[in-house]
Each structure stands twice: as C-alpha cells, then as structure tokens.
Amino acid sequence: SIGPSLFYPHKKHQNTQKRLVIEGESSVLSLSYPPLPSPPGHPTPMASFPSPSIVAAAAAAPPRLAPGLSLSAAAVHHSSHAFRPRASLALRPSATASPANPLRCSHRRAVTPRSRRRTQGLGAASASAAGILGEERDGCLSCFPRSRRRGRPGLARFAPCALPHTSGLSLHSRRSGPKTRRSHILRAAGPDEPHVASPTWSEAALDKPYDPTIRNEALEDVLDTPLPSHPKLIRGQLKNGLRYLILPNKVPADRFEAHMEVHVGSIDEEEDEQGIAHMIEHVAFLGSKKREKLLGTGARSNAYTDFHHTVFHIHSPTKTKEYGESLLPSVLDALNEIAFHPKFSSSRVEKERRAILSELQMMNTIEYRVDCQLLQHLHSENKLSNRFPIGLEEQILKWDPDKIRRFHERWYYPANATLYLVGEIDDIPRAVREIEAVFEHTLSGNEGAPMSTGSPFGAMASLFAPKLPGGLAASLTGERSPATDKLKPIKRERQAVRPPVEHKWSLPEVDQAAKPPVIFQHELIQSFSINMFCKIPVNQVRTYKDLRSVLMKRIFLSALHFRINTRYKSSNPPFTSVELDHSDSGREGCTVTTLTVTAEPQNWKSAIKVAVHEVRRLKEFGVTMGEMTRYMDALIKDSEQLAMMIDSVPSVDNLDFIMESDALGHTVMDQLQGHDSLLGVAETVTLEEVNTVGAEVLEFISDFGKPSAPLPAAIVACVPKKVHIDGVGESSFEICPEEITESMKAGLEEPIYPEPELEVPKELITQSELEDLKVQHRPSFVPFKEDDVVKVFDNETGITQRRLSNGISVNYKITQNEARVGVMRLIVGGGRATEDSESKGSVIVGVRTLSEGGCVGNFSREQVELFCVNNLINCSLESNEEFIFMEFRFALRDNGMRAAFQLLHMVLEHNVWLEDAFDRAAQLYLSYYRSIPKSLERATAHKLMVAMLNHDERFVEPSPHSLEKLTLQSVKEAVMNQFVGSNMEVSVVGDFTEEEVESCVLDYLGTVSAAKSSNKEEHIEKISFLPSPSDLHFQQVYIKDTDERACAYIAGPAPNRWGFATEGKDLFNDIRSSSADEISAPANSGKTHINVRNHPLFFGITLSLLAEIINSRLFTTVRDSMGLTYDVSFELNLFDKLDLGWYVIAVTSTPSKVHKAVDACKGVLRGLHHNKIVERELDRAKRTLLMKHEAETKTNAYWLGLLAHLQSASVPRKDISCIKELTTLYESATIEDLYLAYEHLKVDDSSLFACIGIAGAESGEDVNDDEPELGLPGMVPMGGRGLSTMTRPTT
What we know:
By secondary structure, the protein is an alpha+beta fold. One of its GO terms (molecular function) is metal ion binding. Residues 93-128, 1272-1291 are annotated as: Disordered.
C-alpha cells in the first residue's frame, strides 16, 4: 500500500513543513482503524478508498533499514491519518503546503499511541522559507512551526504560492512535527570506526538460496553476522570531543542540512530548572547575529528541545547566489555561536520569556493535557513523567540571565554535541577542514578536552547520552559502561555524567505490583479512549537475526490490524478507531507497544471487548500461511521500490534517519543494503516463528489477568464528564477502573475461531472483460475543439494534454523524479458548493459514505484492500467546496499502474453504496459537530466563519438538523451527478513511458460510460459575505476550562486566484495595463520580464508575495517587538472555481493580551499604506517562493498540482503559460503590482470580521446561545481530532 507520504520518504513539504510523522520514534508499526471524517469545509478526509491500512500493517514499514519512506510505510501513515477530520474553516487546498489545522494548538487525537510523544519535545524558533520571507519565526517546533509551514486547514489553508500544488489533498506525508524527528523502524549507529566499514555479508551469501535442511546451529551463526554499515557515511571526532557525521546526498540539488545536536534536554534539569533547556534554545537561537546574517541567502533555520536533546538546524544553499561563495563556513560559524557562544542579554531573555509563556498557554489544549497524562502514567517511575520540555510557568518567570548562563555552561560544550552534515557536499576533506577551523578552538580556557578510547563518539557514548551508540543498551541494564568510567570531570561540574532514566519493564520475570487502570476525566474531552501500554527494552537492530525478528513482528501485527479493520468495517463497529503501535523511542529509551481504542462513550465496553478479543484470537491461532505470504511479499516489494529510489531521498530525511538510528543503537544502512538484507533473512522465516515472536508482543493483552503474563506498563482511559444522549441531552458519564478491567476480561473470554483464508483478486477487470468493454465503447482520443489537434505536447514543461471520446480530459508528465513510481488524480468539478438549502452536507457525507463502504463491483472491501496491498497502491477520496478528488499512488512494477487504473475504472463504473456505510459517515460528522464546543480554536473559528459567510453551511460542518434530512439516495445523487465525462479531468505523473500511460488511459478511462451527463446544468446557490453594518463583525466565544487560554481569528474578503470577486466581478477590468505582454529587462539583467498585470495569474502571484510580506511583519511586530503572542500568521484562501476568496489572521495569546494582539494584527494588515513595502522585503519574498517552487518541482506530487484544472472549463483562465511562466512572473512582479492587488483585500471595518475565543474558569457565557438554528452557536472546526499533532508537533 502506498501512502501519500511517499512522495518522499517522510517528505516534508520541506519548504513548507518540516519533519513529519510518527513523531520522533522509530516506529515498527503504526496502524489505525477507521480514520475519522474530515470536517466539511476541508477536503473530505483523505478517506483512503478502501483505506489500505492493511499494508499499513504489512508493508507499513518494512523494517526501516534505510532512510526514505517506503511505499507501505507511507500507506501506514496515510491510513492512520487519512480519514481524520480536518477543519472546515479552511475550505481550500493549500498552495504549496499540506493542509494543516488552522489552530496551531490542536494536537492529533489525544488517545493515539503516538500522542504521548507530543509532549516530549519543544522547538524554539521557526525561520523557514515557507514562513516569513526567510525571516526567523520564533516558534517552537513543538508548538507551531508545522502549522506555519503547512498552512491551516481551518480558516485558510493557502500557503503563499500562486498555484496550489494540490487540489484538495496532499500526497505528502503529514508530519508529526518539525521538532519530532521522523520515525523509522531501523536506524542505526554505523561502524565503530570514524569512517566506513564494508558489508560483512557478501552478495554471494545473500544470493544463495536458503536450504531448509541447514542445521539450526549453522543458521544461527549466519544470522549473528553484523549488518553492513552505510557505505557513504563519514564519522569523525575533533580533539575537543565534538563528533561529526557527513553524508553526501544530491537531493535537493545545491543544498545541504547542518544540524547541531547538543545532548542535553529537559531530563537534565534540576527541580528548580524545569524548562530552562527550552529557554536556552530560544535565547541562543534567536539571539544569534551570525544566524541573522544568513537571512536573504536562501537558508532556513529552526530549533527544538526534547527530553534528551537540543537541536539547532540550518537548511542552506551550498553557495551564495550573487558570488558563488561557499555558505558552509558561514553556516558552521552560526551553529558554533548558537550552541557554544550565545549572548544571554537581559533584553533577549525577557523577550523570549514572554514568548515561551505565550507558547505555554497556546500549547495547553486538551489534547496536550491528555498527552501529558499518558506520559505521566506510562513513565510514573522516572523523570520522564514530570520533565516536559516546555517547563513550569512559575519557574520560567524567575530565572535571570545568570541562572540560564550557568545551565548553559554545565552542558553546552563540544564533547557533549554531535554535528550532522547531509547534502551536496562533494569535497569531504574540505568539509572536515572547515569543521575543524570553526569548532577546533571552541574550548574554554579552564577546560580540558575529554577523550574516550572506546567509541568513535567519545566519552559521551554512555548510558547517560541516549543519542549515542551504546548508550541505550547501557541504560537498559542500569550498568555503567567502561567509556563512561574513563570520563572524569575536568575542572568543571558540567563534565559530570547525567542521571540514568530507569524503567520498570513489562516482562514476565519482572516482579512488580499490577497497576489498576487510570481514568482521566475532563469536560473538554468528547469521546472515550483507552490506551494499554507495554514497555520493554529496545532491541537494537545490528545483526541479521535482529532484522529477522523485526520482520516477523511486522508480519504478525499487520495481520492483527487488517483483521480488526476488515472484520468490523463491513458492519457498524462499536469503536471509532483501533490503533496498534509497536515502536522504539530514542527519546524515552524504551520500546512501547500500545493498543488504543477510541469509541463513542456509550459504546466503550463493547469497543474494548472487540479489540482484546481479536488480539487473543490472533495470539491463540496465529497468522495463516496465506497472510504470512501476502505480507512478506508486500514488504519485499516495498523494500525493492525504496531501493530503486535511493538517489531521490531528500537530505533531511537521510539526516533524520541517521539521528534516530544513532539514538536507538541500530545499524545505519542505505536503501540497497536494507533491501539486500531483507531478502537475506526473508527466506529463513517460518510460520511457526512468526506466530511465536508475534504472540510475545501481545501477551500483555492476550494473557491479561494471568499470573504468568507481563503486566501492562499502564492502562489509561481518557473520558468526558458529560455525554449527549438522544432525547435526553447532556448527562454525566460514569465509569470506574473495575469496569474497565471487567470489560477486558470479558473480551478475552469470548469464544474464538481460526481465521479463514480470503481470496485476493489478481485483477479487478479480466482481459476478456476489458476486450468486451473496448468493443462496446470504442475508446479513442479526439481532437481539441480549438485547433483540431489530437495531442498537445509542451516541450518546455514536458506536459502532454489529451481528450477522450467520452469527454474525460487527460494530462500527463513523464519524470524520473521518483524511480518507477507514479501518481494520479481525478478531479471532478462541483464539490460542496453544489449543495442547496435542502441538501446541506450531502456531498461531504456522500464522499465519506463511498469511502466507508470500500466495495466495487462484486469485490468486498477486504478484497479491494488486499488488491491494493499486493499492487502497492494507495488511494484516497475527498471533497472540498469546489471539487471531488480521487488520488492514487502506485508502484510501476508488476503492472502496478494498470492495477491503479482498474480501481479507478471500477469506482467510476461499479461503485457500491451501502446503508451501513452511510450511517457511519453521518454519525461521524454528527460527533464531530457536537465536539466543536469542546475546542476553543474550533469554536472561535466556527463562529467567525458562520458570520462572515452569512450562515452558509457549505463552508462549515453540516449541523445535526441537516444530517437528519439526508438519505443514502440523496447523498449518492449529490456525488454521482458530478461524475460526468466532460466534468472530469485526470492527471498522471511518474516514471512511465508514453505507451504505458496512454494504453492505460484508453483501456480504463476510455471505457468509462460517456452517457452519464446530467440533464440539468450545475446550479450553485449564491455565496456572499455578510453585509455591513452588523453586530457580527466582532464576536467573542467563552469556554469553561480549568486553565486560561485565548485565541483570535481576523478575516476578510479577497478575490479568487484568477481575479474574480463576489457576484462574478472581473477585477482585471480595474487593473489591466495597456503595456505590452512582454518587455525586455534592463540590458544588464539578462532576464525576460512579463507585464504581470496582463497575466491571468496576476492575483495568484501578487497575493502570494503579499502573504509572505505580511507574515514577516506580523512576526516582527506582534510577536517579536510587542510580545503579545507566540504564534501569529496570515494565510490566504483562494478558490479556483468559486468567485471569492478570503484571508485569515490567526493569533494565540493570553486573555489579558488577546484584544491588544487583535488590534496589533489589524494595524499591521492596514499599515501597508503608511509603512510602504520596500525592495528588500519584496526580494526576500520572491526568493522564498522561488526556492520553494524549485524544490517542489522535484516531486511528482507538486507536478500533479500544477496540472490540476489545465483543461477544466470551470477554470478557463488556466493554461500552460501559468506553469511555464511561473518563475518569470514572480521575478517580474513589482511593488506597484503588489499594491494593486492589496487594494482588493478588504481590510476596512465594514469588511473585516474578528472573533476572540477565551477559555478559563471564569468564562461564564454559553457558546450555544447565539445561533440556535445551527444547533451549536457558531463554532468552526479547527482541524478536528487527529490533527493536533499535525498542527503543533510537540514531541
């Protein structure tokens, strides 16, 4: 199964979003059942159609042997998050950033196993190109950076860019967060020498067939062979103890990553220092003058802090654009100053103190509080339970510069740090010399250079430095390593070793008392969730035997996930989701297995019973031979695909992989080595061993209550205080620990039966059926009406345009960006805008219903999912206000592209609509709507959206009243009426041949029925902004909460991307210039300039640049100078088809400052007239967007977005010039052009809308009093459950 995140191994829209998913841990398995619905306004949940979460299990992530997101791994990630609700505020595809939550403070669903990681790490400042013109945005990667990079899915999801690279859905991985480093399953320390070691298992040995008669002893000897180390990874150490790693990497071209990791974090803080490591991160990073000098060079920088580490990182071009000088010395010099020579001035300390206190309030959502609860109980025996990086407010208020400086002197020194360089670094010896020149003399006069003889990482390679090889193993045993004993404090206290983190393991032989289930109850919690944890030592993957064990666990757990998914998906299950997570955590120093069950409160007992019953059934009977064969094959295919992409893995992904591997003590291999090693062990695996190894992982659940069973590390239930009961209303929710225990035991006592084998189709359309279709429909390409040409090919972009005889338009581009991988998107015009007053919610519920069912033709959901698994396909279905999308990611091997086209054909021609799927879809949206008042951000955003768009429900989630009026037939008609040949456009991008793609297009798209034309013309009811005057232009929302928080949204009208405003007004009539289409640049510039005002992308280009400039000013004014917020952003929501758009400013603050923050934001927005834009600001904005564009053109996903609407009749102004001239348009835009566009952003009092949300114990107003007709007073989604991590990576 291929996941959207595949677009690059945990691809980060790197320019827009940082790191991504499975937060910081090396995830061996991360699976989730039924993803949740996406809020209305958002593209419907990336509803995996049929959510190949199966492989999510199987291929979900073959042992992570090398960087890069495997096809299956991506699928796993995708299936886990795809269906989760997203804010309906944003209602528009993000420009170049993945859709993200509009409320930076929301976290991913609090009950997921990964959620506990969110509280583990904080970032300090976000200075990314995607953010503010290259200016540093101070935002802890743990708290907001991701939101800044990816755009918010709420009020606005437009990241500054003229053309969005996605049309409603993103093929990129959604990351957990910038600060939480990517999770891989196998990462690892390399050889013990500073340089490379060659593989120790020869190719001959790997190629030799496995002989089943081989003696067990001989097999053990072979499996004990060490895994090969990465052949290009260079390791070294300076005389002062600084370790460095260098890895040459060509993607992206002419850029490199430099990360300085200091091995100190919140776990090293004393009782009166809680949060001081995070404070130093802020002060050191944002106070660096040398880092500021990099602004304008195209470099982006950021920082984060977690339990054990503080990391400062810079993503930089290799050379300056003007003079071609190397930037590596300047980048290293900046890192040296930040890490080892910061200036703790009183002014900077006070500025960052204000920022951190604001950040603390911003983070303190209910999701974050749930995460803290999970960590506190999981690690109740050690400091991980009470040393969260954000710190304690009362202590943060007290520290003076001297106190902060003393902590820095104790821990920030070269021997306690590691420098990572990954990127286009061709001259390794020169890079080493530059490292030596910058860092060699970084040593205080009274400090000696501690050296270790036992490890290439020096003295700190001990149990007390989990980031270093050997450290983890030592900490597991509680023994001191020889290397540690040799390290003696030399004149300074900071040389002392750190206290170890001790764990109580969930092992049969460990004698400890059983912990009763813990219940965390809160009024802001909406649903029931329970987390069952098991904690064991990390098994470092260093030999083939270790790798073999990981492979067997993955096969076993994949089967469990798929069984739960399929067994109950076809009927209304008692749970909302079931997630199984088995992952290594370098930050926590352990391996944690988590079973998380989420359900509606009234169904919680049945949900627990189902989950534990299925676990016991798998443990007792094991996986079948068919399951083992299926998942093994998927893993090998996935690994092979990843190996083929070895030269297209971005530097940051390779770097993340290495850092996490070193933290866990795994061996680092490249993709080819990983694939060869996997093949080497695969043939030695037996069904009996798979079942034995897998059963051990699940014993803490399957044998729960037995004397011999390992005890769970913790069982934590997070539940609401009140629940909604139909016909009754709100009533108290009662639950006790004994009931939870009884439900678990009851589920284990249910009768169990073996799993039957399932027939998996090899193809959905047989060759004979295809021949019959071709005879019946006679597919062919037809001429374009304009010029009677059958095929249009553009040499400059490599884009081909075709049109089929049934009216379907086709665009494709052949590219080698990703080896033997392809992506495809179907775009159907209409979307939620076609809903009328009698069918509110019909499109979004209908799309969800179709994806919930997952059946096509005579094939069941289970069969379709396994078909996707076998062909490495990931498919998603979603909708937004303008369009319905279906998107595919597939491997171009074993007819993978034909398989994807077959599935698309079956969805279009033989879709199946099920009553129970409709019931589930409606219930999910009903639950989501009722949860709005539980979120400050969603309630605030909803209230603003409802007011601004004059109570138009098409831009928010459907109300209970609207949902009650829907039927299966009405939602089916609302969706299928849009699937008309001439209303459909398919774009394909990948590493295929012209013959391959055109054959698939003719065979499977050309044979789609053409007669599906609707007799009535598409009708869209009028969309308008609330007229002035009105008392709804400024509103407030109050929510009762134990803790105080505040946020605000400011929004107003804007034109759409193509220059149309409300009521169809064409703004080009106002701004059209009489100048020629092209003018020559000055003689010395050598560039061709375009008269931007005559180009259809005028508003897309100029508003994108304006957004960058406004964001920069908001940060420097409202955040940095005035200290009123930690997180503020300006985002645009530009539609393509609808004649409107809007902008949104989102700001978080405290109740005492939020009104001032709103006024300050309005001042910046309106201040462009008296505080004129200068050339420096415009140049920086251009550089940021052009760099982003250049980097993204190396990805298939971005090209898929560029191709969107190229032949769409509903977006008539888009043509090939909008793609070809994009770079020139940015370069040609002038300050005068920006002011012309600015005139059409409505910022006056009569047009601007604002809503302030305040939460606290004194908030007494009822948010439900304002709009009874909607059932809930105006509150708009902020991203919904599951997106909290996506908006603010906190681990």
